[in-house]
Amino acid sequence: MRLLPLLTAFTSLLSLTVAQKSTNKHQTFADLASSSKGSKGVVLLNDQLFGDLTGPNRNFTSVVLFTALDARFGCVLCRDFQPEFDLLGNSWHQEHPKSDGLFFTILDFSVGKQTFQRLGMSTAPILMLFPSSNAGPGSDQPIKFDFNPSDITPAEAVARWVTAHTKHTVTIHRPFNYVKLFSFVGGIIGTATLSKLAYPYLAPALFSRNLWAAISLVSVLLFTSGHMFNHIRKVPYVVQGRGGGVSYIAGGFSNQLGLETQIIAVVYAVLAFSAIALCLKMPRMESSAKQKIAVMAWNLVLLCANIGLAYILVRWIKLVWRGKDDETQDIPRVVKKAASKGAKWRRLK
């Protein structure tokens, strides 16, 4: 019975010693975070400090960035993420000057080779969270953060990750970007000045009816011929036909080729510009006699051309329609067959 008080006193003394050591550790790293030569709130580690930081009986949580900033290692992602991690430590230090149980630390490969080798790390950067020893089951296992290798990970993403795995709420205080503000204001002033100086020279073109009519006409021809369809569906320019030749018209009503779009656009353009030329050229003839002769000549030409052209175009359109209706049919072979039939018909006639 006499040993029981001694045993109780020894246990109490041991607990106080462990708690004192843990408190001393916390205070040591808090002082390092406040007096850091780099970013305020970020502790620069070495092998010994890392062992103390992640040792047993710790009453604080630590976020460790394993990095390789030396130019010899060529770690671009390390250098890109470093300012975001410094911002993370600064933001936490602004609200919690005494760290309050959460530390943001960095272990560079140049001063922590033994730790890298002991943990089996061959890549960088690696971000790990070491929870407090009294955080519950699994607190002895660190939690790893998954970086996005194709983009710079923002500090806000890491802050959300730390908040999700700890009892601490990390808020990012990103400083105002005056460079963007000055660039934006300078761009507006430069654009306004340039517009003011260039306005006398650009005004005739900007208010030209012919220019805007041409732009509108070209846009209409492009979009009505299927230009946007090609961009959306990423269609090929031409494909190989069944006989080994080049097929420039796709089979099926839901398919289209790049060259097919250009053919349709040229047909539309010829018809459109012919109608425009006829409408604009005739009224500008000064002589009424010439105007009458031109109108009669154009009508005669159009009448003769329309009879022959209508027959050819109608047959061609029917053949194209038939070819697109049958997706397995080779369009160039159909067109050649139609051309040979037309020649035979002319000989018989």
Q: Describe the strand arrangement of the main beta sheet, using strand numbers.
A: 1-3-2-4-5
CATH class of the largest domain: Alpha Beta
Mean of residue pLDDT values:
75
**Rough shape?**
elongated
Give the SSE string. HEHEHEHEEHHHHEEHHH
Category by helix and strand content? alpha/beta
State the CATH superfamily name of the largest domain.
Glutaredoxin
CATH architecture of the largest domain: 3-Layer(aba) Sandwich
Helix segment tally: 11
- The CATH topology of the largest domain is Glutaredoxin
Count structural domains: 3
Helix content: 55-70%
Could you tell me the strand content as a percent range? 5-15%
Flag low-confidence runs: 3-23, 327-331, 341-349
Q: How far is the first residue's CA from the last residue's CA?
A: 134 Å
Task: Give the tally of β-strands.
Answer: 7
Computed Rg = 40 Å
Strand and helix layout:
Layout lengths: L2 H32 L7 E3 L2 H7 L7 E7 L8 H20 L6 E7 L4 H7 L6 E5 L12 E2 L10 H11 L12 H29 L2 H16 L2 H7 L5 E2 L5 E2 L10 H24 L6 H38 L5 H18 L1
Parallel strand pairs: 1-3, 2-3
Antiparallel strand pairs: 2-4, 4-5, 6-7
Task: Provide an overview of this structure.
With 349 residues, this protein is of the alpha/beta class. It is built from eleven helices and seven strands. It has a five-stranded mixed β-sheet. Strands 6-7 form a two-stranded antiparallel ribbon. A hairpin with a 5-residue loop joins strand 6 (239-240) and strand 7 (246-247). The longest helix has 38 residues, at 288-325. The radius of gyration is 40 Å and the shape is elongated. It starts with a helix and ends with a helix. One of its GO terms (biological process) is protein N-linked glycosylation via asparagine. It is found in: Endoplasmic reticulum membrane.
